[in-house]
Amino acid sequence: MHCALYDTGRCRSCQWLKTPYPAQLSHKQSYLETLMTPFDVAEWRQPQPSDQQGFRNKAKMVVSGSVERPLLGIMHGDGRTVDLCECPLYPASFAPVFASLKPFIARAGLTPYNVARRRGELKYILLTESRDSGAMMLRFVLRSTLKLAQLRSALPWLREQLPHINVISVNIQPVHMAILEGEEEIFLSDEQVLAERLNQVPLWMRPGSFFQTNPSVAATLYASARDWLADLPIHTMWDLFCGVGGFGLHCATPEMSLTGIEINAKAISCARRSAHELGLDKVRFTALDSAAFATGKEQAPDLVLVNPPRRGIGAELCRWLDNHAPRWILYSSCQAESLAKDLSRLERYKISRVQLFDMFPHSSHFEVLVLLTLS
Fold first, then answer.
1. Within this chain, do residues 115 and 228 fall inside the same structural domain, yes or no?
2. Mean of pLDDT over the chain
3. On the CB side of 241, how many CA atoms lie within 13 Å of its CA?
4. Cβ atoms < 10 Å from Cβ of 119
5. Are 240 and 293 a contacting pair, CB within 8 Å?
6. Confidence check: pLDDT of 272 > 90
7. Are 245 and 285 in contact (CB under 8 A)?
8. A Gene Ontology molecular-function term (predicted)?
């Protein structure tokens, strides 16, 4: 992938960009195999590659510059700002949105927030695209509601320019810190959720709920989880740290009893909507802490699926799983080091299968799917 931003030294976020992509995959696989050396892996699946550019479905842009000439991109630690509207990681469909947003910022009088001076209103632009329909969700992160009326007044012009933006909202983030968003969300559109569909499974995205940034590889990850479990006699299943329900909804069958747990209530509302649309009557999604839910139970289901944040599932949940012994654990990890630590705690399990999914090309990050079977 060629990137003028990288070549001129303005952005080095893609630290592995000059490494040929096959070598990137090889490095990641070798590193994963090194981490897994202490364990006996019955089967290694081939790594799942990604498109090398245009694969992202979302942009998180720091807004800087002036109201007349805003920049959308990143801010370096020394205060330097870089416009990333031409970043090749974004699909071509993002360019006209960025092009319309810049004059809109001026029309609405949304002064970019100046970190050093602690002045201005517009902090971030957050853009998400549905790869299924091409519809988009646009969020303005503001310091306060001071410019909200001006934004509303200018919005008809933007909607005329970009009719495919279905969800528009304002997030209020008043804190002078590197925090992406605040707790208050104000919708400026009738629609409040963005529809997506992966492998014919309907999924929904709300502001603030987690969704994978690489939908093509995410679709392969979910499909692989479904295929790995298809021949197992699973009647009961937990989907912990379930987000909007991508894993559980792919793996559930009409006969299976599935409980999905996620602390983010917005994500849970999306998961429930998908389950209803699929007609899955035995699926229940609840907004709770996943570890607290599991460790408070006396009995385990046939299978526990976990998709934790980077820190992993931790010692307490590992101890509960090892003691209560579900027949299978399906572990999806976005941090291989915490995965290895958790696997070392699950002493009663053997590793039946492992596969790497390259969700983040040109960087050292990747995701891993592991199937564990009770010994």
1. no
2. 96
3. 18
4. 11
5. yes
6. yes
7. yes
8. 4 iron, 4 sulfur cluster binding
Judge contact between 140 and 167, C-beta under 8 A.
Answer: no
Residues 6+ apart with CB under 8 A from 372: 328, 329, 330, 331, 343, 346, 349, 350, 351, 352
- Tell me whether residue 199 is in a domain: no
Q: What tokens were used for 81?
A: 């700002």
DSSP-H helix ranges across the chain? 4-7, 21-35, 95-108, 148-161, 215-229, 246-251, 265-278, 290-295, 314-324, 336-345
Please give the DSSP secondary-structure letter assigned to residue 114: B
> Do residues 242 and 356 share a domain?
yes
Helix (H) or strand (E) holding 84: none
Catalytic residues: 334
Cβ–Cβ under 8 Å, residues 332 and 223: no
Residues 92-106: tens digit of each pLDDT: 999 999 999 999 999
Beta pairing, strands 303-306 & 236-240: parallel
Residue 176: band (very low, low, confident or very high) from pLDDT cuts 50, 70, 90: confident
Binding-site annotation: residue ranges for [4Fe-4S] cluster: 3, 11, 14, 87
Give the residue numbers spanning the domain of 78: 58-193
Global confidence as pTM: 0.95
User: Is position 285 within any domain?
Assistant: yes
Residue 201 lies in a domain: no
Q: Copy the structure tokens of residue 54.
A: 């245009």
